[in-house]
Design brief:
Blueprint: H1 5-14, H2 34-42, H3 49-68, H4 72-81
Helix pairs in contact: 2-3
The protein binds zinc ion (ZN).
Region (Disordered): 17-38
Length: 84
């Protein structure tokens, strides 16, 4: 099926979308995920609540993973002296 420009315009209006400009349509933000949080930051807009929570969870997980393979002594040494 082929739509004329006018038909396409009407269709876009009907479903409440903004017409993409230059073919570079932005992807919808994946809210509630770390990826979504990064998309917010990339667009320099404040994070929504689900994205903020997801980002926090991601950071905590990374932090926990980092701590996981180091003993407390190794961690302290790394903090104090840089590389082991
Ligand atoms: Zn969001």
């Amino acid at each position: 099926m082929t739509l004329t420009e006018a038909e396409l315009d009407r269709l876009i209006k009907d479903i409440g979308l903004k017409k993409p400009r230059g073919g570079s349509q932005r992807k919808p933000i994946a809210h509630g995920t770390y990826k979504g949080a990064r998309q917010h930051r990339y667009r320099e807009e404040p994070l929504c609540e689900p994205c903020r929570i997801a980002e926090n969870a991601y950071q905590n997980e990374r932090y926990a993973a980092r701590r996981g393979y180091l003993t407390e002594e190794q961690w302290q040494a790394r903090q104090a002296g840089g590389s082991l």
